[in-house]
Structures are given as C-alpha cells and as structure tokens.
Specification:
Length: about 180
C-alpha cells in the first residue's frame, strides 16, 4: 500500500491550510500595516524566543537513548516545508523556550519530515520513516506520537491540538502519570 494514499491528499492539505488561516490568521507572516498579525496572546509573546528543540532523525538511536536515560520519546511526523499546522506547532509550541526547557530533561525528540507527496526528506532514514508512518498509522500532519520506551505504551495526537507549550507539556505529564 502506498504511503500517499494514507496521508492527507493535496486537496485536504489545502483545505486544512485555508481553515487554519481563517482560524488563526496569518500566523508567522510578521508585521502587516504596522500591526502584529500573530494571534498569540500578549503574555505568551515573551516565551517565543528561538529555542529550537534538538531533534534526532534516527528513531532507533533516539529510542535507545530514551531507554538509557529514562526519558519519554516524542516522535513528530511533519511537513516542515509545506504544512501550515506543522509550522504553527513548531513555532508556537515545540520551539518555545518553555517547551525546550521542559524537554531537555524529560524527552528525546525524533522528527520524521515529509514532502507534500509523502516522501521522507531525510534520505538516510527514509525507509525507517516510512516504516514508522505505517506502524503508527499516521493519517495526517502533524502527528505527534508520545512513547514510553520502558513499557512500549504510545499515545498519538493528530493535527494542531495545542496552541501553547503548556498544553503539550500537560498532555505528556498525564501520559507519564498513566504509564506508571
């Protein structure tokens, strides 16, 4: 079965992008007419410092590290170059200083990045990323899979489920508490 049939069609991605623009405005478009076009509340803007979360592309290496360090594994399936919800999740949640500070002690992050046609962008990990998209039944972008390496328990989130780092942190903490 081809991966293209399993992920969102181009038409669905366009509709999703249009809907996200209507709901969230021109997120990430910077200044327009001297006004900030970002829908982020004033208090949150202080957190939006470039604090890019370190990410692996090698799932097996990251899983071994998570097991060894007793951390949760966060596997992100994204279309970083073309998917507006993926870009918003990265900018307003994953790459915030708050989430990066939380993640450095609690998570190992893996990113499986895909183009619009469903082809992995990382050539060295392409086969593994395709296997992972199949294993975790990914149907759209972004999809985030939280994995407890000690038990094998997983929880998936599809779409732009959180608009602040607090939401994702709370989700991960609840996941960890229920894994015990």
């Amino acid at each position: 079965m081809k991966i293209k049939s399993k992920i969102l069609s181009k038409k669905s991605c366009f509709l999703m992008a249009a809907l996200s623009t209507l709901v969230f405005g021109n997120v990430g478009c910077g200044q327009q007419d001297g006004k900030d076009a970002s829908p982020v509340p004033q208090g949150v803007k202080q957190e939006l410092k470039n604090a890019e979360l370190k990410a692996e592309t090698d799932f097996d290496k990251a899983l071994d590290r998570a097991k060894k360090e007793g951390k949760i594994l966060m596997l992100e399936f994204v279309g970083s170059k073309w998917c507006p919800p993926c870009m918003m999740m990265k900018k307003f949640v994953v790459d915030t200083e708050k989430f990066a500070n939380y993640a450095k002690d609690k998570l190992v992050n893996v990113v499986a990045d895909f183009d619009r046609q469903g082809n992995p962008l990382c050539a060295e990990q392409a086969k593994k990323h395709l296997d992972l998209i199949e294993k975790y039944a990914v149907r759209g972008f972004p999809t985030t899979v939280i994995i407890d390496p000690s038990t094998g328990r997983t929880e998936s989130i599809t779409g732009l489920a959180f608009d602040t780092p607090d939401g994702l942190i709370e989700f991960i903490e609840k996941f960890k508490a229920s894994s015990k």
